[in-house]
Design goal:
alpha+beta, 4 domains, 13-stranded mixed beta sheet, eight-stranded mixed beta sheet, 27 helices, 27 strands, ABC3_permease_C, transmembrane
Length: 875
């Protein structure tokens, strides 16, 4: 067996010896080693090492200081080579450009969306110390969490807890089921109004253009207008202080004088409003809020620097329990700016919220850019055989590997930044449509908040996409390349296959995501809610709270006014049923306790959703009565009667409830009926106990229209509306649309997910298309020989497609369990959700496989039909 010289001394010689002497010296040393190894291999190795060391002297040691090319010349040379490469390999260039552009464009859009979400409610100066009080109610082992607290909680906190710098009570505009009406002369406007205590401006950032923030809300009958509202009403924001306006919302109405003009609430607020009034006047209209047992207003705190939040939570709970005896409620604090993204609680424990969508889109952005990078890597390494001679010649004439790495990285970086430019232009053009899809006002602002992340991501994309091809191509040995020997290692092929598998794993997961979200949205839309929402139109009735002169003469009341209006609606052709309520059935209803149904026992702790409705409500919405009867005008019970849903009766443990009496806030009530459970909140929540009270004065009109006559009937309703409420727009909405609005975020996520899944599949298939084209080109002569030997087109197509089919099948097998776990986790957030059928996952896998095979077939069929004579004679 022939012995070889010792490896380490030989490598050392090649490292330090001058290139012009190396071949001769190495040849002599190897020849001496071969002669001596026949006698004693060990002595021959030692002698070889010693002779190498003897050459380690001046004259034989090479210079380690190379004279680098001028940086400008090097960059110019590399740029020229890159542009020639783009021009020569147009198909690869276009595939990479489209893929990276699509990935980076999606990343820019998602970055804008995520940044917008993360900045909601963070503009307040006290952001780091601003908290909202949450109330946790233990209802027979189930802990319900809500933002509603006692109306007098803030004042008690200010008096008793020194850790709190400021505490204020706010009733958000969103608390009301309808907007209020602001009247100035003949001008009437529907606006969102919130009520706040006088220290509001010391807690929240709300700059005033006019007025004193310390005194603006001290007067009970003060009102502040937003800048836009003032401009619309008066055409100016100046000299408005002291002017009198009329405000009405619900049953509350009055004259107020303007004490301030505030800047419009920024888009970064989760709770916009147009006007602000004093909380004191709200207390006068809702006197029960002075009781500790209510839970409607919101309480906000600014804690002192260094305050212990855990200790403060305990103190808040003890404060509540001191004032509400035997209470099973607890209070805790949540950062106000976190409430928007982390708003869901399950059994008293945080359970996510919109932050899940932020995390989802962050992952999607990374995946989309990642699979675009994979395309670049795969196509660059796949076409390496076209560039091996270039690499070999450069290395043979002295190019260092580092210089080649820099060249190929420069090529990938140029591609990445070129793609960023195209992506930015595409986003700028499509941004209005994107805003329509997202419901936001995203903007491309050229500031460092966008430029630095975009530059950083693009730089990282270029380095990641180009690093593997650069190291791969620059690693070829010139002697092997120039002798025409194979240079493609098995590792490169395996890496390409692994990257293709990863691409389709991501694509299949996104396809499953789209299918599951679509199926859940379809389930939400088709689920029996316990009431019929089809062809029901709603609008708000605005009437004076005082009786008209005609009704005064007849002893009439506001209730009579509402009933008279309802009677006029009933006469309109096309109207089949009419009802009214004090709430939108899918809106916020408030929660109340204080219901005692067991004599001698305190039942105050159980909380009920509260829905105040007029006569005919259950009939108009077709809510099924399980026991008893609906509210009837001639029943004799009048407002003493209450109706519970089945969930309330089950929780209360009442048998034969109809006719039984109970006390609600000290007033005796009689159960006149029990309704079947119906969904008055989103399907994220289980149907909770509900009490329905009679309120004939409710101004939310619900009218069921005859199918097919909606347009004509709405025109008649509008005419009637304007006859009674001149100056107001007939602002109607369909009940089904109101229900769908509960899931607006999910609908947008569903739509965006479909686009992103489509883009992911497009990018993956572009890469597959490029690899299939390269494979067909590389095996062109093989295909020609097989055709001459009798292989048919179908056989050749399968031969070229089989590897790709196997890779996609592996991706499907990997993706299905991952997507199942993710889908099950998302659906667990709904109290009522669709099922995860096997065909959802099988369908996603089949779809991915079909799309991949069709993409590959575009190339393989064309390759299979080429005349074999052309293939074999082609050089």
């Amino acid at each position: 067996m022939k012995l070889h010289p010792p490896e380490k001394p030989l490598k050392f010689l090649r490292w330090f010896c001058r290139k012009d002497y190396l071949e001769e010296i190495e040849g002599d040393l190897v020849e001496l080693f071969e002669q001596e190894s026949d006698q004693s291999p060990r002595r021959a190795r030692r002698a070889f090492a010693w002779r190498v060391l003897k050459y380690l002297r001046p004259g034989f040691i090479r210079s380690f200081h190379s004279r680098p090319l001028a940086p400008t010349a090097m960059l110019k040379h590399n740029l020229l080579i890159t542009l020639r490469s783009f021009q020569r390999y147009k198909a690869s260039f276009l595939i990479n450009l489209i893929g990276l552009t699509a990935g980076l464009a999606c990343a820019v859009v998602l970055y804008l969306w995520i940044q917008d979400e993360l900045h909601i409610d963070r503009y307040h100066a006290n952001d780091a110390r601003l908290y909202q009080v949450l109330q946790h109610s233990d209802e027979q082992g189930n802990i319900a969490t809500g933002a509603g607290t006692a109306g007098i909680l803030a004042r008690a906190i200010t008096a008793e807890l020194p850790e709190v710098e400021q505490a204020t009570t706010v009733v958000r505009a969103q608390w009301f089921s309808e907007k209020g009406v602001l009247t100035v002369g003949d001008t009437r406007m529907r606006l969102g109004g919130q009520y706040a205590e006088s220290n509001y401006f010391q807690v929240f950032t709300c700059p005033l253009l006019a007025g004193n923030p310390g005194k603006a809300l001290t007067d009970k009958y003060s009102i502040l207008l937003s800048e836009t509202t003032a401009q619309r009403l008066f055409g100016t924001t100046e000299d408005l202080l002291g002017k009198v306006v009329e405000w009405k919302v619900g049953f509350s109405t009055g004259l107020f004088h303007i004490t301030g003009i505030f800047e419009d609430v920024p888009p970064a607020s989760s709770t916009p409003f147009d006007v602000m009034l004093s909380f004191d006047v709200f207390l006068d209209d809702h006197p029960w809020l002075r009781e500790w047992g209510n839970s409607d207003p919101n309480t906000f705190l600014v804690v002192r620097p260094g305050a212990d939040i855990d200790a403060l939570n305990l103190k808040l709970t003890k404060l509540l329990q001191r004032n509400l005896k035997e209470s099973r409620h607890a209070l805790s604090l949540q950062r106000y700016s976190e409430r928007y993204l982390h708003g869901r609680y399950e059994n008293g424990v945080p359970a996510g919220g919109r932050i899940l969508y932020v995390q989802l889109f962050s992952v999607i952005a990374v995946f989309l850019v990642g699979i675009a990078c994979i395309n670049f890597m795969n196509l660059s390494t796949a076409r390496a055989s076209r560039r091996v001679k270039e690499v070999g010649i450069k290395k043979a004439i002295g190019a260092a590997r580092s210089a080649l790495v820099v060249q190929y990285l420069q090529e990938s970086l140029l591609m990445a930044f070129l793609s960023l430019g195209v992506a930015t232009a595409a986003v700028w053009v499509l941004l209005p449509s994107i805003n329509g899809l997202t419901g936001k006002t995203l903007m491309l602002t050229w500031d460092m908040d966008l430029i630095l992340p975009a530059f950083g991501v693009t730089l990282l994309t270029g380095v990641l996409a180009g690093s593997y091809p650069a190291l791969y191509l620059s690693g070829f040995r010139p002697a092997r390349v120039l002798k025409g020997k194979p240079v493609t290692p098995t590792g490169g092929l395996l890496a390409r296959r692994g990257l293709v598998v990863f691409q389709f794993v991501v694509s299949v997961i996104l396809i499953v995501t789209v299918l599951v979200v679509y199926r859940q949205m379809d389930y939400i839309q088709s689920r029996n809610l316990g009431y019929n929402r089809d062809h029901v139109v709603m609008f708000e009735l605005e009437m004076t709270n005082q009786p008209t002169e005609e009704f005064l003469a007849e002893g009439g009341t506001f209730e009579h006014n509402v009933e008279a209006f309802l009677q006029e609606i009933r006469q309109i052709p096309g109207v089949t049923q009419v009802a009214n309520s004090a709430h939108n059935i899918t809106g916020y209803h408030g929660r109340l306790g204080g219901i005692d149904w067991r004599e001698g026992e305190d039942d105050n702790e159980m909380m009920f959703a509260n829905l105040e409705v007029g006569y005919d409500f259950t009939q108009a919405l077709r809510i099924r009565i399980v026991e008893g009867k609906p509210f009837l005008r001639d029943s004799g019970t009048g407002r003493r009667g209450v109706i519970f849903n089945q969930a309330a009766i089950d929780r209360m443990g009442l048998a034969d409830p109809v006719g039984k009496t109970l006390r609600l806030w000290g007033q005796e009530k009689e159960i006149v009926g029990v309704v079947e459970n119906f969904h008055f909140t989103s399907l994220y929540e289980k149907v909770e106990p509900l009490v329905m009270q009679l309120e004939p004065r409710g101004t939310t009109m619900m009218i069921r229209l005859r199918a097919g006559e909606e347009r004509e009937t709405l025109a008649r309703l509008e005419t009637l509306y304007h006859r009674h409420m001149a100056g107001l727009t007939f602002d109607y909405r369909f009940l089904d649309d109101t229900y769908q609005a509960l899931y607006a975020a999910e609908q947008r996520i569903s739509t965006l997910s479909r686009y992103f899944a489509g883009i992911a599949i497009l990018i993956s298939c572009l890469g597959l298309f490029g690899l299939a084209a390269f494979t067909a080109e590389r095996r062109e002569k093989e295909i020609g020989i097989r055709k001459i030997l009798g292989s048919g087109d179908a056989r050749i197509v399968w031969l070229l497609s089989a590897d790709f089919a196997h890779m996609v099948l592996i991706a499907v097998v990997v993706a299905i369990p991952i997507s199942y776990i993710a889908a099950r986790q998302w659906l667990s957030g709904f109290a009522y959700s669709t099922s995860l059928d096997w065909w959802l996952f099988a369908g996603a896998g089949v779809l991915a496989l079909l799309v991949a095979l069709l993409t590959v077939a575009l190339q393989t069929i064309r390759a299979a039909r080429v005349n074999p004579v052309q293939s074999l004679t082609k050089e």
